[in-house]
Amino acid sequence: MSKKKRRHKISKRGLPPGSLVYTGDRAENPSVVLSMWFNEPTYDEQHHYHPEWAGRSGGLFWTDVRGLTDTKLVGQIGQDFQIHPLALEDVLNTHQRAKMEEYDNGLFFVLHNLRLEAGTLELGSEQIALFAGNNFVISFQEDPDDTFSAVRTRAREGLGRLRKKGSDYLTYALVDNIVDGYYLVLDELDSQVLELEEEIYTKGINAAIKERIFDLKRVVNQIRHRLLPLRDALSRFQRTEWEMVDESNRPYLRDVSDHIAQLLDSIDNQRDLLDSMEAFYQAEAANRLNDVMRVLTVISTIFIPLSFLAGVYGMNFEHMPELHFRYGYFAALTTMFMISLLMLYYFRKKKWL
């Protein structure tokens, strides 16, 4: 069972609300910004922060920030797009639960991108924040790798509806991209649970299996802890009356909400299966203990009459006629041996042994 490293959170005690302090554990990763502006016939992309494109009409501006160590840049983006200070604080405070909040000028999302290390069963979590307003979307990724590469490819190559829709559809596409990654995590987890189940029923139980059951239950609970608040956030996104959300896009929002419900059902099934395996492990351990106690009890029961005979003839009274019998020693041993055989036969007939 692997040992988890304890994170040392940066203390924000005493700071006023809205203070921009990065509290994550990726301090060594520099911030990288990619700016995009597109509509149906046009796509422009720059590998730096390009706020001037936000003033263009007839298109959608998307800025993707990868790495949150540059708090001045995050503050500048918040100022340029009038993002609420509390929302910016949540961007840098990377220990948030998934949520969706409505502000006067946009919608704010906090989600978590999950990765599962198959060998160590360690669940990696990257916080991703989205702020969507009229004709713009700002995404903040904690890790430097590109989680939204598939969405960017669709925008660059004009695939699907992305360049024909507004910021609500782009927000949906980014959220759906993260949710699709959960299926990969659950597929790996499901294969490990099924593999463990087969190993238990074919090879029996041992200490290593107990550790794997514990690790898998820990991962399942962590994923469920991430999905439950995300379900509530997407439900709010689906029901929001904010003018940015087009009615024609609500079926897509319902679809991603259904995906979360499906993922939660899968997680619950895996929890039940792991609970069953844990109960089976405990029952097998109890059966093994019962087998040991049965053998010890049979041995003790056989030796009780033998100890009685040995105790009687070991009292050394002077007037015990058997003590002067020439073959008394052999008779006593023969009697003990016959008693043992008769008791073993009786236990075997009763199927106690």
Summarize the structure.
The protein is of the alpha+beta class and 353 residues long.
Task: Walk me through the structure.
There is one protein chain. This protein is α+β, with helices and mostly antiparallel strands. It folds into two domains: 32-284, CorA soluble domain-like (Beta Polymerase, domain 2); 287-349, Methane Monooxygenase Hydroxylase, Chain G, domain 1. It is 52% helix and 15% strand. The protein is built from seven helices and seven strands. It has helices spanning 71-80, 85-92, 149-157, 167-203, 207-239, 250-312, 328-349; strands spanning 32-38, 43-46, 60-66, 99-103, 106-117, 122-133, 136-141. Strands 2-1-3-7-6-5-4 form a seven-stranded mixed beta sheet, with helices on both faces. A hairpin with a 4-residue loop joins strand 1 and strand 2 (43-46). Helix 4 (167-203) runs parallel beside helix 6 (250-312) and helix 5 packs antiparallel against helix 6. The longest helix has 63 residues, at 250-312. The chain is rod-shaped.
In terms of topology, how is this protein built?
Blueprint lengths: L31 E7 L4 E4 L13 E7 L4 H10 L4 H8 L6 E5 L2 E12 L4 E12 L2 E6 L7 H9 L9 H37 L3 H33 L10 H63 L15 H22 L4
Parallel strand pairs: 3-7
Antiparallel strand pairs: 1-2, 1-3, 4-5, 5-6, 6-7
Helix pairs in contact: 4-5, 4-6, 5-6, 6-7
